[in-house]
Every structure is written in C-alpha cells, then in structure tokens.
From TrEMBL:
Residues covered by the Calcineurin-like phosphoesterase domain: 44-252
EC number: 3.1.3.2
Keywords: Glycoprotein, Hydrolase, Iron, Metal-binding, Oxidoreductase, Peroxidase, Secreted, Signal, Zinc
Classification via Pfam families: Metallophos (PF00149)
Sequence similarity: Belongs to the metallophosphoesterase superfamily. Purple acid phosphatase family.
GO cellular component, one term: extracellular region
Protein name: Purple acid phosphatase
Location within or outside the cell: Secreted
The UniProt record lists the keyword Signal: yes
Coiled-coil region list: none
GO process terms (BP): intracellular phosphate ion homeostasis; response to hydrogen peroxide
Cofactor note: Binds 2 iron ions per subunit.
Binding-site residues for Fe cation 1, renumbered to this chain: D50, D83, Y86, H251
Amino acid sequence: MASFSAKSMTMFFLFTIIFGFGFLHASAQLQRFTHTPKTDGSLNFLVIGDWGRRGKYNQSEVAFQMGVVGEKLDIDFVVSTGDNFYDDGLTGEHDPNFEESFSKIYAAKSLQKQWYSVLGNHDYRGDVEAQLSPFLRQIDSRWLCLRSFIVDSELVEIFFVDTTPFVEEYFTVPEHHYDWNGVNPPQTYIANLLKDVEMALRESTAKWKIVVGHHAIRSAGHHGDTKELVNLLLPILQANHVDFYMNGHDHCLEHISDLSSPIQFLVSGAGSKAWRGDVRETTGNGVNFFYDGQGFMSVQLTRTDANIVFYDVSGQVLHKTTSSKQLHSSI
Ligand SMILES: *[C@@H]1O[C@H](CO)[C@@H](O)[C@H](O)[C@H]1NC(C)=O
C-alpha cells in the first residue's frame, strides 16, 4: 500500500511537471509589436529578401528603386524575408557588414522606417545572436530581427516564422556550419513554434493575416517547394484563413496561388544576386508570375483590398495582383 501511494505520488509529480510545462508553454507567446495603420486605415510596406552583399549584384540599384517606390507609397515599414548578410551572416555584433550591407545601402529617406526581419539559412551560418542583438539597434534603430514574432494591428497581423530549423538537410549535410544555439533539439523547437503560430493565428481577429518566412512553401525557382513546410506549416495556414505567405530563399520574384485554399504565395528574394536561370516546370500549377532577375515587392493594405506589386531593378512594374474582402465580415 505504501509503495502504491509512493508510486501514485511519483505519477502525480510527473503529471504536474508534464502538464505544468505544457501550461507554461501555452502562455509563452510570440513577442508582439504593434504597428498602427495610417489615419485613413491603410498600411503600406515593401518586401525584400536575400540582399546583403555590400551593394554588389545590383543590391544598390534595387535599394535606390525601393527608395523611390517607398516615397510614392509613403511606406510604414519594410519586411526582410531573410538571408540578410552574405555569405555567412554576421561574424558578431561589430561586423562592419551590418552597416556596409544595410545602413549605407538602404539610405533613401523613405526607407528610414522600421525594418522587420527574419533569419535565412545564410544568416544561420554566422553568429545568430549577433543579428538578434539590441546592439545592432543602437547602430541603426531601424533594425529588428528576431527568430519568430508578430507585428499586429486591427488591419493586419504579420506572423514572422523562423523556417531554417525546419529544413532537415541543414542538419545532415556537413558542407556548412550552422549556429544552432537556441534551436536544439530542433524537433522540440519546431513543435513549440508550430503550436505558438497555430494558437496566435487561431486567436487573430485582424482583417488580413500574413505569414513571413525565409523558405518557400511553394516555388518554381531553384530550390523549389520546401517539403518540411508543405507538411508541417501549410496545413496550419490553410486551416486558419491566412491570406498571404511571403518568403525569399529563391533569388527571384514569384506569385503562386495555392490550389486548395485562397492562400497566395509571394516570393521576394531578389534583393541582390539573381539570374540563376533554372525554372521548375513541374510546379506549373498555380504559378501566375515568375521573374528570375532582381527586384522587390510592395504591399498596400486597406480594410477591403490588398494590392501587391512586383518591381524590377529599374523600378518597372512587372506584375500586380489584388485581393478583396467584404467590409462587413470584420469585427
Ligand atoms: C543588373 O541588372 C541588369 C538589368 O536587369 C542586368 O542586365 C544585369 O545583369 C544585372 N547585374 C547583375 C550583376 O546581376
């Protein structure tokens, strides 16, 4: 009898620990930043990815045109889809690449706004903590890069997701070193992240829901679809009425429609080196637009419309798409 109750005590403690951790995790939400829309209720931003090359490979030319479009649209902020610094992220907080590839390049007046950035696989090859460090914000107050976080307002909620730890190949292929501090074990990291994203999406009452990651869910470019994201992240986005998934990784511009939900996949990974020249014909379904050169994307949101425009290195409009919603379906 005594041994039985000792056992039940042990079981009780085990359950408390397991359930307690589950409970703790449930309340450990993603960090949130509020970005209030303009007084007319609209919000505009630019999306750029795969850029930090000290101005080379047309990075400076793209940056110049971003400045022009940013001025015209009176943008509220800029979103970076990752691979912020080539080839291997930052070596530390004092790496001059930060200013040489970011501050000095995106110097236009209209780009002096908040930048919200995720990490790409190349960033994981350097010192990840350095890129996340508040020290960089002292050097350039526009910079905000975190692993996963939310930018919210009543108009739009943007869910930034750290996609690099999803890709199994990076853990098994020995040719590059990745900084997995804070990610190990990846299975737990991914499970917790998916839980957080799902809960935040489910609770969101924003008019527009946008998810940003570095890796593509769908892409007709060099890397193609990311199977881990198709399997693990896409079902969550489909079940929670996400409007757009935006990413980089493939150095091109793309607009692909999901075939089984209203989700639009928007690729903006053309911030510098491009022209790889390989297009996957197999992913033909749902591909509305594919451009293999440099450029960027703009997003203009109102309560009823989302206008997306893609631009090339000289600022020429390459492709436009509009999504609309009923006014009465909100709040
Ligand atoms: C820069 O852009 C121009 C115009 O699209 C293109 O012809 C050229 O090849 C690009 N340069 C590089 C280094 O990619």
